[in-house]
Amino acid sequence: MILRIAGLPPRNYYQTPGDRQYLPAGEAPHALLIQPGTLRTTAAGETSNLTILLKRAALRYMTLPPLGAAAVLSSAGVVLHSGRVVRVTFDADAVTVEVQP
Amino acid sequence: MTLAAPLPLRSTAEWGSFAAPEVIPLRYGETGGRLLQYGQDRIRWVWAGHAVKGIDTIFADGVEVGNWTWRMSADPQGQPIALVEFFGPIDEGAELVAIGRGKLSPLTGAMMDSPADVVVDLMTIAGLVVSSDALADFRRQCRAAGLTVAGSIETETTGLAAIRSLCESIGAIFAPDAAGICSLRDSAPIGHPRATGDGRTILSGESTLASIVNDLTVRHGWQAGEPTVATRVVSDESIRRYGRMAASLDAFWLPGSARVATSVAERLLALWSRPRWSVQSVGMTRALRVGELVAVEADDLPEVTAQVLGVERDFVSGRTAVDLELVAGGPQAARIAGLAEQVTRTAYPGITIDTAADVRELTIKRPDGRPAPGAEVIINGSTSIIADGAGKVRVAARLMPPGQHLIEVRYDGGEPFAFTVTV
């Protein structure tokens, strides 16, 4: 599982060593992805959104929060969800990134 | 008395029973407001319940009139009133609005238009003992920024609500127990050292795209409950990066001066057009006060300076929880997009249209006068927009050029309605 957030430079947060083969060449890799949350979509017209949990250490790359940046969650090269970052939160343990189409 | 209690405002009921009781207004700076009937003859009217610098212009139903004089007088209770006398009786039902220069400082005799002086006056009226010197830093900040205020208190309100409204109008923080009581947003408090986190703190935080504002319209120069001017400031760089995020600020205490409004709007946009971290720090042992700047240190954040926006202190453990705001990224230039455009307001049953610069703001109301949040507004049968939580929709003026337009409104819990408006 890889979360790629566009920026200067683009950053790729991956989950397991097996994900490394799918990392874009020449882009910053960080083994900081804990897990994606549930993709929530309703028939009430609510915008689908996905939260992705990263290790707290990811915060050092988000001093300028990547709000509005394009974000893609993929697994083994298959895109699971894409959109832009609308919210970033952190606590003592983790950083949560919320992505909306 | 406390700031949370209603201000002890005087009422026209003290004068007799010739009109419905109303609050006798307090007026500050160069401002305008309705005249109150003073006597059965409809010749004498009152503008304010205190000494004022002067009354300059009077409008009757929107038309300037010249058949009047003004003077300071005293009412039957011996209280000062700013009295207007017309040369003849005013017609029943006429709306009289006077523009003037408001309350005088009891210390200097000059008109009070410094935000610090008005805050001191409101706190004093609320029954608190506060020295003018207590707000010396705030006074200096406002003077350096060229800030003045203008406004009236014409209805029942609390001291807290009045001072908060004033501070929101000029982009200031108000905390009665804070160092200096008031402080302009983003300016370093004067005379207080920076505090530093003690390294044992637990930090959590949030940053959202929705909190960014890069297209700000400030409505100001309020007279008799209506804005007379709107100033719009945008940050092109922020719009390019995050998309257009528009907001409006009803600055009830900002005068009609475009210079003052632009100064406030540019300072607020410099903060709001960038991402901000709203951070909570728990466990600080150092005493912090609202408005202070704190050098935040955490393992995975570089040292940044943040402004304290809230403090909770546990006297048992001696620990403090602090709300901080960190502005991220470099400053982004702001430009004036619409300077001191006149606001024109047109009212129809169920809808009010405010036009300023290149935007029309439609406020949708239910038959009982309450806003209709979430209403669907269809313009000329083609453009459909959903009203926000206050029942407002903003429409580019190019979609509603001068002329007639068909407006259809549908909302939950009521009958749809439609009519033609002229803008």
First CA to last CA of chain B: what distance? 48 Å
The proportion of residues in beta strands of chain B is: 35-45%
Radius of gyration of chain B: 24 Å
How are strands sequenced across the largest beta sheet of chain A? Answer: 3-2-1-6-7-8-5-4
- The total strand number of chain B stands at 30
Shape type of chain B: globular
Which percent bin holds the helix content of chain B? 10-25%
Kindly describe this structure:
The complex is a heterodimer of chains A (101) and B (423). With 101 residues, chain A is mostly beta strands. Chain A contains no helices and eight strands. Chain A starts with a strand and ends with a strand. The model of chain A has no long low-confidence stretch (mean pLDDT 90). Chain B is mainly beta and 423 residues long. Chain B is built from five helices and 30 strands. In chain B, a hairpin with a 6-residue loop joins strand 29 and strand 30. In chain B, helix 1 packs antiparallel against helix 3.
Q: Gist?
A:
By secondary structure, chain A is an all-beta fold.
Strand and helix map with partners:
The complex is a heterodimer of chains A (101) and B (423).
Chain A lengths: L1 E4 L5 E4 L13 E3 L2 E4 L13 E6 L14 E6 L2 E13 L3 E7 L1
Parallel strand pairs in A: 2-3
Antiparallel strand pairs in A: 1-2, 1-6, 4-5, 5-8, 6-7, 7-8
Chain B lengths: L25 E3 L1 E5 L1 E2 L6 E5 L3 E9 L2 E3 L2 E7 L5 E7 L9 E8 L11 H11 L10 H9 L6 E3 L5 H12 L1 E3 L7 E3 L10 E2 L5 E7 L6 E6 L8 E6 L1 H7 L3 E5 L7 H15 L3 E9 L8 E6 L2 E13 L6 E8 L7 E8 L1 E5 L2 E6 L2 E6 L11 E4 L3 E4 L5 E5 L7 E7 L6 E6 L1
Parallel strand pairs in B: 13-19, 15-17
Antiparallel strand pairs in B: 1-10, 2-9, 3-4, 4-8, 5-6, 5-9, 7-8, 11-12, 14-18, 15-16, 16-22, 18-21, 19-20, 20-21, 23-24, 24-25, 25-28, 26-27, 26-29, 29-30
Helix pairs in contact in B: 1-3
